[in-house]
């Protein structure tokens, strides 16, 4: 469903761009230049990128164009630009994880996902902004600058992968990678009208992903369409011997599920609507408009032949407290590596201070407030005498949440909910209230704690802002998420007569 | 649930005091102590600010204590894996100069670090 006047390459999805590249209708250099031009024009305001190297991107694009001209056998992703969240290490390319403690650091190696995308012939446009060390739900915790939402520059783009979400929604990249620890792919995707998928834990390599909470961190795709997300996921997924928690299973096949879903083939699919995520008695803090869009989407699925029922998962009520014990605990341990000795910032090494003093000063000046809060909280939760009551208890609650999923999946094939309780909020509104910020992850946390795949797909607007619909599935059944998301996307696109993000293009290009 | 004063929290170190009904509260001194353990030099302003914020967060996360977890095993990881091993084969790692190029300070092909032991030790 391409728009009639689609001369602006940056409004197209990656599948269409790939088709044009293969057909010789455009070149990688032309394409890359189009995104670089848009970044130059828009990113001073949007703040999606922390690092862009136009020269390197164009040189890389030219290489791919030459290879194509010489008749070299190229993969379907060859020549397509991509953006990476700054949490992925990239050889020789500055990587900060949104923190001052890594300012200027050029990693000596590539993350596995970065290497796989490079090998597939993609062109790295740049590294996207994020909450420092991925701790946050708004990208306001970036040590460098906040990122703005292209739907309304006075609002947050979600987080922590907010640079990636704004880059893709704003046409500053055709697609991007994010990471999701408690919702950091799905929630920003919901806030900006994108498709974002958190793969099954272990489905995508974590090698070279700067660790926040190792038992939860997962990399995944953020894209304009469900098909694009599936293609990007296939490109980065599959076993990696460099990540000991990587699942040793065949690489996922997802695009087939997207095509089936897009045809509306949902007869017999059993869909469970999670009561604890916005249902009766659990709707406090949820926008009425969000719940309404989600209810309509569930009806849409029923109309396509899905069997819908309500499912109760009582332990989900404790997902937020469990997560905010487990993630800070793991973070306090993971972030011990930033001590100013081997890489990154070092402060106060003037010959008069001890090693410990230099470490403490480095971490004081290198870390921002949210990182410090979580290190202190995690240190407390893991300390002798408190371990059983906090961290240990949270791990048991994690078991209860996983059991609720297991029981639910005895009766249904997928579980659905809003992706986030609200639409994007104004920048600054929750900055000094950690608990209000954490509530944005209410719906995404259960799948994170259980390690299950979950996708967010746009399901309409509320107050003129995008609403995300979340689909969760059993471990390794990522294809179900894509299938249902594709059905939702296709049905809504058909009803609207255009793609979801065309609404944003129309709005921003309309005369003031 | 009552919130103990910071002094009580700091002094109550006996695990026996921490049953299901966990109470929370972090004072300025507690935060300073935890920050020291984590090698984090916090400013006075941060100590004041964080104590209040973290007490509120701690009250919220203490909700996990409400769950009936008798006989429930802890879940450490989403993937049930143990002892992932590989052949013990020597493979090249990153060249030393490449690694040291990113170090804050290097000397004689090594990381240079501040003095670890005192003069007398």
From TrEMBL, chain A:
Binding partners and assembly: Heterotrimer of A, B and C subunits.
Top EC class for this record: ligase
Region Disordered: start-end pairs: 136-166
Gene3D superfamilies cross-referenced by the UniProt entry: Amidase signature (AS) domain
Ranges of residues in domain Amidase: 30-481
Protein name per Swiss-Prot or TrEMBL: Glutamyl-tRNA(Gln) amidotransferase subunit A
EC number: 6.3.5.7
Keywords of this entry: ATP-binding, Ligase, Nucleotide-binding, Protein biosynthesis, Transferase
Catalytic-site annotation from UniProt: 85, 160, 184
A Gene Ontology BP annotation from the UniProt entry: translation
InterPro entries cross-referenced by the UniProt entry: Amidase, Amidase_CS, Amidase_dom, AS_sf, GatA
Entry similarity comment: Belongs to the amidase family. GatA subfamily.
GO MF, one annotated term: ATP binding
TrEMBL record, chain B:
SUPFAM superfamilies: Glu-tRNAGln amidotransferase C subunit (SSF141000)
Catalytic reaction equation(s): L-glutamyl-tRNA(Gln) + L-glutamine + ATP + H2O = L-glutaminyl-tRNA(Gln) + L-glutamate + ADP + phosphate + H(+); L-aspartyl-tRNA(Asn) + L-glutamine + ATP + H2O = L-asparaginyl-tRNA(Asn) + L-glutamate + ADP + phosphate + 2 H(+)
A GO molecular-function annotation: asparaginyl-tRNA synthase (glutamine-hydrolyzing) activity
GO terms under biological process: glutaminyl-tRNAGln biosynthesis via transamidation; regulation of translational fidelity; translation
Record Gene3D superfamilies: Glu-tRNAGln amidotransferase C subunit, N-terminal domain
Annotated EC: 6.3.5.-
Keywords tagged on the record: ATP-binding, Ligase, Nucleotide-binding, Protein biosynthesis, Transferase
NAD is among the record's keywords: no
Family indicated by similarity: Belongs to the GatC family.
Function statement: Allows the formation of correctly charged Asn-tRNA(Asn) or Gln-tRNA(Gln) through the transamidation of misacylated Asp-tRNA(Asn) or Glu-tRNA(Gln) in organisms which lack either or both of asparaginyl-tRNA or glutaminyl-tRNA synthetases. The reaction takes place in the presence of glutamine and ATP through an activated phospho-Asp-tRNA(Asn) or phospho-Glu-tRNA(Gln).
Subunit field text: Heterotrimer of A, B and C subunits.
Protein name in the entry: Aspartyl/glutamyl-tRNA(Asn/Gln) amidotransferase subunit C
